[in-house]
């Protein structure tokens, strides 16, 4: 390799340019901007205002934060449901007055004052919910009207009863405790805000009503079609918002022991700004309570900080307006263009120079020379199947295969004309293997490792492995489990072809060509799944060696076959036994003569090999051309190859006519016949092998003759 090629390889294989795309796919990236804004806000005001973080200053600020956070929590739920509530300031103020009136003027207990405050919030919330949810009025105009009405009513009541409140002699230790005391260093209002936030978060993310709120906010029409009671859900969000505002109003009444003209003034603007700045979408269905709380801290810190720096109300309002405008712009533009950004940056091809290979063309005289023998294969299930990626036979000679409809189909011996759906798993069943007890083990694309018992009971064995500490993408999840085989001790060895793409996106993985495939093992004794090897280009077929002390696995996009040792001095290590093949290897299975069959799902082409050395070209291709014009690996023509334990090629066969089995992803020898499957085929082929042992079967090879 020249210096330029080594530099290219280092640039594309070691520089983690794909991390940007992986980060942007994460849901937590939506929290990154508000979290960064929160950190900058706290750091800025903490550095320019002396004593900003002193205990006495924080206690007063947190009391305000507790009251404000409750209002923001209610606003967040309404916005998640696709609405908006501009009346929270009025509800907050009226609830405060209700508590003050009952306690100081009527001189009733503090608990009755709390009940009056809650009743006020619930009534106004129910009015908003009925008008917006059931009468389907515009949320903005409806809550604007209730805001104006509520504010006017509050101003009248405060003006009328202000003197009576001032002259009242009512006192209560409970009121003083709620308004002024702390518990474990935090005020009562903060503890209540934390409890409310936790309960609301759990309800939104773990309960059916919470899921309904998010569904309604995402699309009301779709939610209605799914059977969700949209009107009732919207109604309840406004009732909850009124409840939250009333709790906040009660708390400020306890803290101030009164109500004044400025109570709740501009609170609706602050709450709306906090929710949007925190990342709660105005379009509904996207956001969280945690985001709303981050926004509440940002807004309250900003307003209090500006006041302490000597800036007036006008400056505060201007800053809030700017923050709201910026947050809305970011929300709308990001929501609209996120998928475009991901399409631009996620696929990040790497440099790979494939080694020179021998020709597989007829007449080339190489060990890989393909002939036309598979064109003589008989057809099984012609037109009845879609995508029999792998095939396998049981002790009774019955034939099994998976289909792209998520089914495993069984064809009955001896003529394989009659068939039935043996099991419905879902996903796309790929690699198949029988264990000693007759359970059919299957790798199911995008789902995991599954088992089907002889009486057709479907059981999931594994869907994840341990996650690596340095990975941004969730590599614990099995994205593309492909093929499996079973060791004499019952452990199941299987491949996960790629950690970046699901099974249906195999073409993107081939274009990117990153080494993200791995070999795993499932231990039925403790139910654990462990990663044995990592860093291969699309791990595919896996097959136990005849002696059970090692296994072979295919690395498709690198055109290599590796041997992994389970026992002996090389235990735990892998070595490449076949490299630079002219075809892309797929499933591997035992042969009756002590060798191994290997499928070629497609053949290398000079054009695609050349493109692998030009990752920038492949990147531009995925950005600028429609997918049906991309340069893919050739999977229209494949074949079957037999090799020895040392990696020597014994024979090769194919279907050069393209009429029977042009694409091959699997093959299985059974009683002198080779059964051939292909993921793009609509049939299974049966080819009689010249000179093969007519009594040899795979189940007997693995588990011995039936007793």
In helices, the fraction of residues equals 40-55%
Tally of individual helices: 19
- Which range does the strand content fall in? 15-25%
Q: What is the averaged pLDDT score?
A: 89
* Sheet of most strands: 4 strands, antiparallel
InterPro entries: 6-blade_b-propeller_TolB-like (IPR011042), ABC_transp_permease (IPR001851), Strictosidine_synth_cons-reg (IPR018119)
Membrane topology: Multi-pass membrane protein
Protein name: SMP-30/gluconolactonase/LRE family protein
Pfam family, one: BPD_transp_2
Key descriptive features of the protein:
single chain, 707 residues, alpha+beta, 4-stranded antiparallel beta sheet, 26 strands, elongated, 6-blade_b-propeller_TolB-like, membrane
Structural commentary:
The protein is of the alpha+beta class and 707 residues long. Helices cover 42% and strands 20% of the residues. The strands form seven sheets. Strands 3-26-25-24 form a four-stranded antiparallel beta sheet, with no helix packed on it. A hairpin with a 5-residue loop joins strand 10 and strand 11 (458-462). The longest helix is centred in the middle third of the chain and has 33 residues, at 313-345.
Task: Give a brief outline of the structure.
The chain is of the alpha+beta class and 707 residues long. It contains 19 helices and 26 strands.
């Amino acid at each position: 390799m020249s210096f330029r090629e080594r530099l290219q390889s280092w640039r594309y294989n070691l520089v983690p340019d794909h991390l940007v795309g992986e980060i942007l796919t994460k849901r937590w990236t939506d929290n990154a901007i508000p979290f960064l804004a929160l950190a900058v806000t706290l750091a800025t005001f903490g550095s320019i205002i002396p004593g900003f973080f002193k205990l006495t200053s924080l206690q007063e600020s947190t009391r305000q934060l507790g009251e404000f956070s409750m209002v923001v929590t209610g606003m967040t739920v309404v916005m998640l449901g696709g609405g908006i509530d501009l009346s929270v300031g009025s509800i907050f103020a009226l609830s405060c007055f209700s508590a003050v009136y009952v306690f100081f003027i009527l001189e009733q207990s503090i608990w009755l004052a709390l009940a009056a405050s809650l009743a006020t919030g619930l009534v106004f919330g129910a009015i908003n919910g009925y008008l917006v949810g059931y009468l389907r009025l515009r949320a903005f105009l409806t809550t604007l009207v209730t805001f104006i009405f509520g504010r006017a009513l509050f101003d009248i009541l405060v003006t009328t009863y202000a003197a009576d409140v001032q002259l009242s002699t009512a006192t209560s230790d409970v009121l003083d405790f709620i308004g002024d005391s702390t518990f474990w260093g935090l005020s009562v209002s903060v503890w209540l805000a934390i409890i409310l936030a936790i309960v609301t978060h759990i309800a939104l993310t773990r309960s059916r009503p919470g899921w309904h709120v998010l569904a309604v906010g995402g699309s009301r029409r779709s939610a209605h079609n799914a059977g969700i009671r949209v009107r009732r859900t919207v109604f309840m969000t406004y009732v909850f918002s009124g409840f939250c505002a009333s709790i906040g109003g009660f708390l400020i009444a306890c803290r101030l022991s009164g109500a004044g003209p400025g109570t709740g003034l501009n609170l609706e603007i602050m709450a709306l700004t906090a929710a949007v700045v925190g990342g709660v979408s105005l379009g509904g269905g996207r956001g969280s309570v945690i985001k709303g709380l981050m926004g509440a801290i940002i807004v309250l810190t900003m307003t209090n900080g500006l006041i302490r720096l000597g800036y007036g109300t006008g400056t505060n309002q201007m800053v809030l307006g700017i923050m709201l405008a910026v947050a809305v712009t970011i929300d709308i533009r990001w929501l609209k263009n996120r998928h475009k950004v991901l399409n631009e940056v996620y696929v990040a091809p790497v440099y790979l120079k494939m080694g020179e290979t021998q020709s597989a063309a007829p007449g080339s005289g190489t060990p890989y020379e393909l002939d036309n023998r598979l064109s003589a294969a008989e057809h099984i299930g012609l037109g009845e199947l879609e995508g029999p990626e792998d095939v396998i036979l049981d002790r009774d000679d019955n034939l099994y295969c998976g289909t792209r409809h998520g089914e495993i189909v069984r064809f009955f011996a001896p003529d394989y004309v009659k068939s039935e759906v043996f099991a419905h798993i879902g996903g796309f069943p790929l690699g198949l293997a029988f264990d000693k007890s007759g359970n059919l083990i299957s790798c199911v694309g995008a789902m995991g490792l599954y088992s089907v018992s002889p009486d057709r009971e479907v059981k999931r064995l594994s869907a994840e492995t341990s996650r690596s500490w340095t990975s941004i993408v969730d590599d614990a999840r099995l994205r593309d489990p492909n093929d499996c085989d079973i060791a004499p001790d019952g452990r199941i060895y299987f491949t996960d072809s790629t950690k970046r793409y699901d099974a249906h996106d195999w073409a993107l993985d081939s274009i990117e060509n990153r080494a993200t495939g791995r070999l795993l093992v499932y231990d039925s004794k403790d139910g654990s799944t462990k990663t044995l090897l990592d860093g291969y280009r699309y791990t595919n077929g896996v097959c136990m060696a005849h002696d059970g002390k090692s296994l072979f696995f295919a690395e498709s996009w690198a055109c290599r076959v590796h041997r992994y040792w389970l026992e002996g001095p090389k235990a735990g290590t892998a070595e490449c036994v076949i490299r630079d093949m002219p075809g892309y290897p797929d499933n591997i299975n035992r042969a009756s003569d002590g060798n191994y069959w290997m499928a070629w799902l497609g053949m290398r082409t000079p054009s695609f090999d050349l493109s692998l050395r030009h990752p920038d070209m492949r990147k531009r291709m995925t950005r600028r051309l429609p997918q049906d014009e991309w340069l893919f690996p050739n999977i229209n023509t494949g074949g079957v190859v037999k090799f020895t334990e040392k990696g020597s090629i014994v024979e090769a066969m194919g279907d050069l006519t393209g009429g029977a089995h042009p694409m091959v992803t699997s093959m299985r020898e059974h009683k002198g016949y080779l059964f051939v499957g292909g993921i793009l085929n609509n049939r299974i082929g049966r080819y009689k092998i010249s000179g093969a042992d007519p009594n040899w079967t795979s189940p007997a090879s693995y588990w011995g003759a039936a007793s």
